[in-house]
Structures are given as C-alpha cells and as structure tokens.
C-alpha cells in the first residue's frame, strides 16, 4: 500500500492524460488494444485487492469475470440493444453473489489450500457453463446488440461504437482505481492489511476476520465482474474459455509480474502481459512457449516482479547506497 | 442398474481412482516434504502419455516404451529439481505458482512442436487386449484390470518405502525438520531430489499406463491436475494415505455421477469437495 501512495501523482496524471487523448491521435488498432489493456487492468486490480492487500492468493478469479460476462448474455434481449442501466448492475451483482457463495466455502481454508480450492471452484463453474445449454454450452454465444445508454428517446452512449466504448472503459478504470484507493484507506482496508500481516493477532483483537475476508472477496469479485462485463461488450462473444483456469492464471500473472500490493503495479502487469501476448503471437504460433520462458526467467532472476526493476536500476545507478 | 452393470461401473471407478492416486500421491509428497506447490505436475502426466505414444511407435512395444519412459521421466524430474525447483524452497508459494504456471506453458508448447496437436491412440499390447465376458452382452477389458493391479502394487510399494525403509525414514524426518536432518549428516538435498524425481516419475507412469485407454491429446495434463488438487484438498495436503482414500472417493463420485446425472457429471467431484470443505476444511487426513 505504501508504495502505491509513494508513486508520484504527476506520473498518474500524465498517464490519465495520455489515455484520454489517445483515440484522437492513435490508430483504431492501438485504441482497441488499449481498451483491452484497460479492461485487464481493472481485472488485475480487483485481484490485487485479494492477493496483494489481503494475502489471499486466488487462482479462480476468472470465475467472477466469466459469470458477469454470461450475465450480459442472459440479460440482453435477443433482437434489441439492452440498457446499460440494467446490464451493468446485473452483471456486477451476479459476480458479487457468486463471490459471496464461493467465498463462504473457500475462505474456510488457508494458504496452499486456498490456492487449490479457488482453482477447483472456478473449474466447477466452468463446467456449469461448459456442460449446460444455459449459455450456448461449449460453443459459447454471441451478443447480437451491444448495450446502450438512453435517457428518454435520445441515445447517449452506444457500446457498439468503439469510441464510446473506449471512454466508458477509461471511466470505469479510473472509478475502480479511485474506489480501491479509498477502500484501502478505509477501516475495512486497514483491517484487510492487518489480516495479511497477522491474522491471529487480528482474531485475538476481536476482529471478525472471516467477515472482513468475505467482504474483500465479494468486492474483488464484483470488480472482476465490471471487467467481465466490459470484456463481453468488447468482443460481443462469450465462451466458457473466459472462465477457464488459464484466464485465472493469466490475471494472477499480471498481478505478480507488476508487483503485488500496488494498484499501479497491477495495471503495469496487465499492460506488460497484453503487449507481450500481442508481440509473441505475431512472431510465432507457439507464442505460449515464449511467454512461459519469460515467466520462468522473471521468477528465477527477478523476485518482486517487473515493478522491482525500477528499484533495482535506481540502486544500481546510485551505487547501492539507498534502500530503494 | 442391474448387478453386472453396477460391478462394471465399480471396477471403472476403482481403476480411475487408483490412477488418480498415482498422480496425486506425487503431488502431495512433493508438497508435504518440500513445501512446493507444483502446478506443472499435470504436465508430467501428459509427458508420460506422449512418451508412451512416441516410444511405442518407435519400439513397437508398450512395455519397452514404459521402461524407457520411466528412465526418461526420472531424469527429467532430477534435472528440473536441480535446475529450478531447488532454488524455490525458501521462496513464497506465489513464486512457486508463477514458475510452475510458466512451466506448464513451456511443456505444452514443446509437446505441440514435437508431436503436434492431434489426438493419438496407443494400442493395447496383444497379451492384455482380451476381455472377460461377464454376461451375454457385457464384458470387461483385461487391460483395465491390469492397470488397477499395477496401481495397487505401486501403492503397497510406496507404503513400504515410506514406512519401512531407511530412505523412507529420512524422507519423513526431512519433511518435519530439514535443518535437523541435515545436521545429522544426511544429504537432504539428494533426498529432496529423489523425492521430486519419484513424484514426476509416478505422474508420468500414470500417463503411460492410461495412454492406451484414454488416448493422448493436448491439455490432458491440466484436466488431471485440477482433479488431483481436489484429491489433495479432500485427502489433506501431504497425506499419502489421504490421497488414496480421496482418489477412490472421487473415482466413485465421478463414475456414478456420469451414470446418475449425465448432464452435470463434471460437477459431482467438485460437489464432493465442497461437502468435505464444510465438514473438514483441512482435509480428511492431515499428515503422512
């Protein structure tokens, strides 16, 4: 948390400025790529609340992302655009309810069990959508009309329009970031940090640790739902693969690569991951080999993730005198 | 369901459960003794199956292929522990998750580069290809019985190794206090390396054994990995005995789930896990 606060405000503002004018100058391809990165950044930040700030390593976070995406499909009428007022809350609520139910089970476990149990529950939800005709089975399902925002007769926003969509994503990214920053400074945020550093102490201080963890889990699930909603809107297509364990692994990767416990780090991780994926898959169809190799090298040579790179460089330049 | 069908399903459940045990026991041993969570464990199962396919095609004999495959996978396990895993004992579980996730991607792509992405079958050896007639219409393949028998023999051997040999004693001691064992002059690094190689070999062997029945296909390792996690969660991390009981329970749940609720058969195993979590969040058994 502390390093998130240390990040110069100027850098954040500059990033925000670049993001908000990018579609005016950048090509469509890069705008779309950036949209995808911002969606993944929301997703990664939601997981960082669990992994980085509460110490709960969830390997099943894609479940809530996917449930929200499927909620978009189930709520949207077949031949008309749906209303953003309805779809976004429905998707987020679906993810939150799922996180609540799953949380009741998985939060009974700790450490390595938690990793395995979250993975197993996500896989169970994967099978629900994969095996049942609910959302088109293993083939997935199209969303024919993207949601829109209307007041009366006038259409304010059409998420089918790439430009509109870009700014909706940017707005939700900023909202998520601000929300999490406020949350982390709230009593709940401090309690979660306390649970991360010493759960027993928090228990003996009389904190209802389980309820706090459950609250964190539900909030993280709901925010993953925001990302899932946006992802469904961007691609207009939902398959069970979006809640597969690869997706859970990838988002965990973004959080760890970027350096846990810093919201900016999660966003940097999402950026690095999506860009690497683009570059590698342009090079070869065996791009996962390159991705896997990069991961192995980062773990072996760079404990602390990409975010530690700047600190290491600084230390190197300053001759090892500073403590980072 | 008449009695014969029930018997056949029971044998299937037993065979599936025992096979799962082979894979899961390696996973639980590696965690219980070295504290390493190994997501790439399923990849070793996949490797074994592809070795069985490639080496059977090359040598023409499944048994020769399995012998070669065992040597090869033990070597792979030994080298991986030496090169990568031995550097991760002191690190966080997160780093282990990350490293082994990266390894899954690497192994899966190497498989794709060498063998391609097609589904392949492996022929059952002639001497085991018969079926036993159970009734006029139903029969049971001898090879599946052979698989179950081999798994039972291995389970007994493992019990003997861990409980009644000097090496087993060192392994058990090493799992409870690494430094103490080391200061008694035992080469704990070598023991870890052996245990890791043993775990890899067990998973690969399970893959080789299963190849003629399940055929070999991309992603087969990951499917097994997640079910093995369920086995370990139900049985208790680090408990080989627990892994055996849990694997058999899952064999039963999965097989009879397919018969009773075919539409949601994929879920029964996870429902079993959810029930166990409510009852005993740390698994049914706790220690080796």
UniProtKB/TrEMBL annotation, chain B:
It comes from the Bacteria. The keyword Transmembrane helix applies. The chain crosses the membrane at residues 16-40, 52-80, 142-162, 190-212, 224-252, 259-279. CDD domains: TM_PBP1_LivH_like. It is a multi-pass membrane protein. Pfam families: BPD_transp_2. Keywords: Amino-acid transport, Cell membrane, Membrane, Transmembrane, Transmembrane helix, Transport. It is found in: Cell membrane. Its main location: membrane. The keyword Lyase does not apply. Belongs to the binding-protein-dependent transport system permease family. LivHM subfamily. This is Branched-chain amino acid ABC transporter permease. It comes from Aromatoleum anaerobium. The lineage of its organism: Bacteria, Pseudomonadati, Pseudomonadota, Betaproteobacteria, Rhodocyclales.
């Amino acid at each position: 948390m502390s390093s998130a606060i240390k990040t110069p405000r100027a850098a954040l503002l500059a990033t925000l400025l670049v993001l908000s004018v990018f579609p005016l100058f950048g090509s469509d391809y890069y705008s779309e790529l950036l949209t995808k990165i911002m969606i993944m950044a929301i997703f990664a930040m939601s997981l960082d609340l669990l992994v980085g700030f509460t110490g709960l390593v969830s390997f099943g976070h894609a479940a809530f992302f996917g449930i929200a995406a499927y909620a978009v499909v189930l709520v949207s009428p077949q031949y008309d655009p749906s209303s953003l007022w309805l779809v976004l809350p429905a998707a987020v609520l679906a993810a939150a309810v799922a996180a609540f139910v799953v949380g009741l089970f998985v939060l009974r476990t700790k450490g390595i069990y938690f990793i395995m149990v979250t993975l197993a529950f996500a896989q169970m939800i994967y099978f629900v959508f994969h095996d049942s005709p609910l959302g088109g089975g293993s083939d997935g399902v199209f969303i024919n009309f993207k949601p829109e925002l209307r007041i009366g007769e006038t259409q304010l926003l059409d998420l089918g329009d790439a430009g509109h969509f870009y700014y909706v994503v940017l707005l939700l990214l900023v909202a998520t970031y601000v929300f999490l920053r406020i949350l982390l400074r709230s009593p709940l945020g401090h309690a979660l940090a306390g649970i991360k550093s010493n759960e027993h102490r928090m228990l003996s201080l009389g904190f209802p640790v389980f309820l706090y963890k459950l609250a964190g889990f539900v909030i993280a699930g709901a925010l993953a739902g925001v990302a899932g909603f946006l992802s469904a809107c961007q691609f207009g297509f939902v398959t069970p693969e979006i809640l597969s364990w690869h997706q859970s692994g990838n988002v965990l990767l973004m959080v760890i690569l970027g350096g846990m416990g810093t919201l900016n780090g999660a966003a940097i991780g999402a950026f690095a991951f999506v860009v690497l994926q683009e570059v590698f898959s342009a090079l070869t169809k065996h791009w996962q080999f390159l991705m896997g190799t990069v991961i192995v090298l980062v773990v072996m040579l760079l404990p602390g993730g990409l975010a530690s790179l700047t600190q290491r460089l600084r230390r190197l330049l300053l001759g090892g005198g500073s403590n980072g | 369901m008449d009695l014969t069908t029930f018997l056949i399903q029971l044998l299937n459940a037993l065979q599936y459960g025992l096979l799962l045990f082979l894979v899961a026991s390696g996973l639980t041993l590696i965690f219980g003794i070295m504290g390493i969570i190994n997501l790439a464990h399923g990849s070793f199962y996949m490797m074994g199956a592809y070795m069985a396919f490639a080496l059977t095609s090359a040598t023409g004999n499944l048994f020769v292929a399995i012998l070669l495959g065992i040597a090869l996978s033990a070597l792979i396990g030994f080298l991986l522990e030496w090169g990568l895993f031995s550097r991760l004992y002191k690190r966080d579980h997160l780093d282990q998750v990350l490293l082994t996730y990266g390894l899954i991607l690497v192994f899966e792509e190497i498989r794709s580069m060498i063998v391609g992405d097609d589904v392949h079958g492996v022929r059952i050896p002639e001497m085991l290809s018969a079926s036993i007639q159970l009734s006029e219409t139903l029969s049971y393949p001898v090879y599946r019985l052979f698989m179950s028998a081999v798994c039972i023999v291995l389970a007994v051997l493992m019990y003997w190794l861990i409980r009644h040999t000097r090496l087993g004693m060192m392994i058990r001691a090493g799992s409870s206090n690494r430094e103490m064992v080391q200061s008694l002059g035992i080469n704990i690094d070598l023991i870890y390396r052996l245990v890791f190689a043993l775990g890899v070999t067990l998973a690969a062997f399970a893959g080789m054994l299963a190849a003629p029945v399940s055929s070999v296909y991309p992603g087969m390792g990951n499917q097994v990995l997640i079910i093995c996690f369920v086995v370990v969660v139900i049985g208790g991390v680090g408990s080989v005995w627990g892994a055996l009981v849990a694997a058999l329970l899952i064999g039963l749940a999965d097989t009879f789930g397919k018969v009773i609720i075919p539409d949601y058969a994929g879920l029964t195993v996870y429902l079993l896990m959810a029930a166990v979590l409510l009852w005993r969040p740390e698994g049914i058994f706790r220690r080796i």
